[in-house]
Specification:
There is one protein chain. The protein is α+β, with helices and mostly antiparallel strands. It has one domain (6-89): 3-Layer(aba) Sandwich (Aminopeptidase). The chain has three helices and five strands; from the N terminus they run ββββαβαα. The protein has helices at residues 53-68, 77-85, 95-98; strands spanning 6-10, 15-20, 23-33, 36-44, 71-74. The chain has a five-stranded mixed beta sheet with strand order 1-2-3-4-5. The protein is globular and about 40 Å long. It starts with 5 loop residues before the first strand and ends in a 5-residue tail after the last helix.
Length: 103
């Protein structure tokens, strides 16, 4: 039996991972950018696409970033699109970056 997928910050790899037990279903790579994290790439294992895991991963990552009191620079098109569709996360993007990603 597989466990419910969980979002984990793998700081050593500089990425948030969506994990089910020991299996990585997908990840969102980031790098520090001052007081923010710049998200550069998000990927879901092709065997798990179409199940809403990308949104679950990004939501969990953004919630964790918020809990840390940090901001987000969404250079990854998927993360930027997620934030455009879920306006409750726009405040995480520094005002000077919002126009760059269409917010």
């Amino acid at each position: 039996m597989t466990s419910e997928p969980q979002v984990v910050n793998n700081e050593a790899e500089r990425r948030y991972e969506l994990r089910s037990g020991d299996e990585v279903l997908g990840f969102a790579e980031y790098r520090p950018a001052g007081e923010a994290l710049m998200f550069s790439h998000t990927e879901i294992d092709p065997a798990h696409e179409g199940k809403g895991f990308g949104s679950r991963l990004v939501r969990g990552a953004l919630d964790d970033v918020r809990a840390q009191g940090r901001g987000v620079v969404p250079m990854c098109p998927f993360v930027a699109s997620f934030i455009r569709e879920h306006r409750e996360y726009v405040d995480l993007v520094p005002p000077g970056q919002r126009g760059v990603v269409g917010l």
